[in-house]
Amino acid sequence: MKKEIKRVSLMTAIFLTVALVSSAVEAGVIRINGTTAGSESGAPFPDPAEGFYVNGSLTSTDTQLGPFTMFYSVIVDFAFNGTPPGAPGASSLVVGDAANGDSILTCFFGNNAGLCDNGDLHIVATNTIIGGTGRYAGARGSLTLDGCSNLATGETSGTISGTIVVRGR
Predict the structure, then answer these.
(1) What's the CA gap between 11 and 33, in Å, rounded?
(2) Could you read off the pLDDT of 135-163 as tens digits, one per residue?
(3) Which end of the chain has fewer CB atoms < 10 Å from its terminal CB, N or C?
(4) Which residues contact 54 (CB under 8 A, 6 or more apart)?
(5) Secondary structure of 83-150 as H, E, C letters
(6) Is it true that the peptide bond before 67 is cis, omega within 30 degrees of 0?
(7) pTM score, whole prediction
(8) Calpha distance 142→159 (Å, rounded)
(9) Are 78 and 112 in contact (CB under 8 A)?
């Protein structure tokens, strides 16, 4: 009987070791530093004097994450302009081939940081990673987007930086 218990304990220990090592291989920290470019469009509130909605997309190809496209939506309410934490929004980063379902989900607050050197609107958005799909399921971390947005053309460009913690499966 004791021999059987030892064998079961040894098998359990081997199984747990393999399971833990396998998940650690896929887990890790991805540091993000790169540039972004994209476009946005706005739609006014029913009363345009109160604010507007923004939808946009950014792409980046020069980060450790690889090529990605970020889709986002923001509510800009003039009543809260310049007050912390800023304008609320949500985004989804589609990493690589959109068909494989790998995406990172974030929520954020964007703040108007004044004007860029060229006169465009300077926006800084702090994104909290709240999960993901595919290989990014359970992801956590934060990203900061710092960019310039041309309200006349809708063009936007800037930088992205931060850390994504990917949990092993």
Answers:
(1) 44
(2) 889 999 999 999 999 989 999 999 999 99
(3) N
(4) 40, 41, 42, 72, 73, 74, 75, 76, 89
(5) CCCCEEEEEEEEECCHHHCCEEEEEEEEEEEEECCCCCEEEEEEEEEEEEEHHHCCCEEEEEEEEEEC
(6) no
(7) 0.75
(8) 14
(9) no
